[in-house]
């Protein structure tokens, strides 16, 4: 009797079908490893040295309580993950390892959401990192140790700065281990300061020992407290949120690109455009709170502060969690007047320089600034959660000292300097002394949306949804028949049937 074979449920596919999907990881370019050949043993040896895997193994052996371990990689380093997992499994027995890629939000942040899917109790983050404190998951960081041609870098540095200049040297996380060496090669620069790392609480940095310095700023440790009189020399080009943060804190900013050995002094994101968005937040009636992180510490506390501040200002707010935000996702919510994004200050804040998004996107600090009683901006730009919360608490104390009993209804409409108009719907949650009723009864009891949109107040508050529906030029299918006496639609009839190439009309 012949063997029973399961039926084929799909079209036959041979190896040629997947020829474009095959990928040989041995031949992938890895400029950060400085390989001289495609030899596999040389590649493995370079990976072990680059990521300090022997030190990582010793760290894991000293902590046997971590038995479910996740390894988080950014896109540019994911090709090394298989070699790293194979090496760790060969050295550490009876441990479970998972590889995390395509992070839920910013790749520089700890992805607690993905780690919870496998109930991991430890996470190892590879590559560049922001070092922001996470909510609950224990973790460690492996930056890697890329190499640079320091002679070329120092040559460019000397062309840009004089010996008496005040300069701070900063870099992304992987290049921090080179800063001390660079400073030693520039002994004639007496006012040279390096921005070292300080590890977050209960976290360890593999392959790097942070130095003890006095002041903590921008998740870096510095020997100076004030940076406004210093120029910044940054190795690598930061993302736009980080770039704008540094521009507002230093006298001048120069970036160095290790790939091209070129310096750049701008243009950088414009702070005046942010000032315009603050005024839009002041006159907005509906504010969308966009969550671009679920792991950073104090996220829930900041959300509660923002929601309370929006409600106290008489405005409406809605909370959105849409994964990684993009233009198409946010365009679905056209009734939102402005977005407030909560995310990492390195990559999680959206800086829309080309007006790609339909509505402005601001930070929590800018929103709280716009909702304050008196809009006064000194030019500083705050993104870290602790500083934003501290600023809000200081403002609350000042408002309690100068609190008045004026009713919100007595306040005049808000003037919008962006459009030059007065906005009367900027505080939709204010109490209405005037009750507005709809005297014209609608004969069509099923027209719920139409009856809802004809009323501007619901339970003594202004309905932003109704106002939005009234301002729309097109109200949907069938709206052109709303004044006709015959409100019944057409009868359902049987149409043509068959496949697309051979319809059978009913003759």
UniProtKB/TrEMBL annotation:
Ordered alphabetically, the record's keywords are:
Cytoplasm, Iron, Iron-sulfur, Metal-binding
Q: Which GO terms describe its molecular function?
A: 2-(3-amino-3-carboxypropyl)histidine synthase activity; iron-sulfur cluster binding; metal ion binding
Task: Give its localization.
Answer: Cytoplasm
What residue spans carry the region label Disordered? 394-422
Q: Which cofactors, by name?
A: [4Fe-4S] cluster
UniProt cross-references to InterPro entries, sorted A to Z: DHP2 (IPR010014), DPH1/DPH2 (IPR016435), DPH1/DPH2_1 (IPR042263), DPH1/DPH2_3 (IPR042265)
Query: Which residue ranges run through the membrane?
Result: none
Q: Does the keyword Cytoplasm apply?
A: yes
Question: Record's GO cellular component, any one?
Answer: cytoplasm
**GO terms of biological process kind:** protein histidyl modification to diphthamide
Q: Hey, which pathway is this one from? A: Protein modification; peptidyl-diphthamide biosynthesis
Query: Where mainly found?
Result: cytoplasm
Q: Where is the composition biased (Acidic residues)?
A: 394-411
Subunit structure of this chain's protein: Component of the 2-(3-amino-3-carboxypropyl)histidine synthase complex composed of DPH1, DPH2, DPH3 and a NADH-dependent reductase, predominantly CBR1.
By sequence similarity, the record places it as follows: Belongs to the DPH1/DPH2 family. DPH2 subfamily.
What is the recorded function of this protein according to its Swiss-Prot or TrEMBL entry?
A: Required for the first step of diphthamide biosynthesis, a post-translational modification of histidine which occurs in elongation factor 2. DPH1 and DPH2 transfer a 3-amino-3-carboxypropyl (ACP) group from S-adenosyl-L-methionine (SAM) to a histidine residue, the reaction is assisted by a reduction system comprising DPH3 and a NADH-dependent reductase. Facilitates the reduction of the catalytic iron-sulfur cluster found in the DPH1 subunit. Required for the first step of diphthamide biosynthesis, a post-translational modification of histidine which occurs in elongation factor 2. DPH1 and DPH2 transfer a 3-amino-3-carboxypropyl (ACP) group from S-adenosyl-L-methionine (SAM) to a histidine residue, the reaction is assisted by a reduction system comprising DPH3 and a NADH-dependent reductase, predominantly CBR1. Facilitates the reduction of the catalytic iron-sulfur cluster found in the DPH1 subunit.
By what name is this protein known? 2-(3-amino-3-carboxypropyl)histidine synthase subunit 2
Per the UniProt record, the source organism is Candida verbasci
């Amino acid at each position: 009797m012949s063997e029973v074979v399961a039926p084929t449920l799909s079209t036959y596919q041979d190896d040629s079908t997947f020829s474009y999907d095959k990928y040989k990881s041995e031949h992938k370019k890895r400029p950060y490893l400085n390989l001289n050949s495609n030899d596999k043993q040389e590649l493995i040896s370079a990976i072990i040295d680059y990521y300090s895997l022997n030190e990582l193994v010793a760290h894991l052996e000293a902590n046997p309580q971590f038995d479910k371990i996740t390894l988080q990689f950014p896109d540019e380093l994911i090709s090394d993950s298989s070699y790293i997992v194979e090496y760790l499994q060969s050295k550490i027995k009876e441990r479970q390892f998972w590889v995390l890629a395509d992070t839920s939000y910013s790749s520089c942040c700890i992805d607690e959401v993905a780690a919870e899917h496998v109930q991991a109790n430890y996470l190892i983050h590879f590559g560049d990192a922001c070092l922001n404190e996470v909510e609950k998951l224990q973790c460690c960081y492996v930056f890697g140790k890329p190499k640079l041609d320091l002679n070329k870098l120092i040559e460019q540095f000397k062309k840009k700065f004089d010996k008496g200049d005040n300069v701070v040297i900063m870099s992304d996380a992987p290049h921090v281990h080179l800063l001390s060496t660079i400073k030693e090669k520039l002994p004639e620069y007496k006012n040279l300061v390096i921005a070292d790392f300080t590890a977050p609480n209960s976290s360890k940095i593999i392959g790097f020992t942070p130095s003890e310095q006095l002041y903590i700023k921008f998740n870096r440790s510095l020997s100076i407290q004030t940076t406004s009189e210093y120029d910044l020399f940054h190795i690598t080009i930061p993302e736009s949120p980080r770039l704008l943060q540094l521009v507002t804190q230093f006298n001048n900013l120069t970036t160095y690109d290790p790939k091209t050995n070129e310096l750049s002094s701008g243009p950088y994101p414009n702070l005046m455009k942010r000032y315009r968005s603050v005024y839009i937040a002041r006159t907005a009636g509906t504010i969308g709170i966009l969550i671009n992180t679920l792991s950073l510490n104090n996220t829930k506390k900041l959300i509660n502060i923002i929601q309370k501040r929006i409600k106290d200002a008489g405005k409406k707010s809605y909370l959105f969690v849409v994964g990684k935000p993009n233009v198409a996702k946010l365009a679905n919510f056209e009734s939102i007047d402005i977005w407030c994004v909560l995310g990492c200050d390195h990559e999680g804040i959206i800086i829309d320089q080309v007006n790609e998004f339909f509505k402005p996107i601001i930070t929590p600090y800018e929103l709280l600034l716009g909702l304050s009683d008196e809009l006064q901006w000194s030019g500083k730009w705050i993104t870290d959660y602790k500083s934003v919360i501290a600023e809000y608490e200081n403002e609350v104390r000042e408002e309690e000292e100068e609190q008045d009993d004026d009713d919100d209804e007595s306040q005049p409409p808000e003037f919008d300097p962006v459009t030059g108009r007065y906005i009367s719907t900027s505080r939709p949650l204010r109490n209405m002394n005037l009750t507005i009723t709809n005297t014209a009864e609608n004969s069509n009891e099923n027209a719920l949306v139409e009856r809802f949109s004809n009323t501007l107040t619901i339970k003594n508050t202004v309905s932003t949804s109704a106002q939005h529906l009234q301002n729309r030029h097109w109200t949907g299918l069938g709206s052109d028949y709303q004044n006709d006496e015959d409100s019944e639609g057409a009868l359902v009839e049987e149409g043509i049937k068959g496949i697309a190439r051979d319809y059978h009309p009913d003759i």
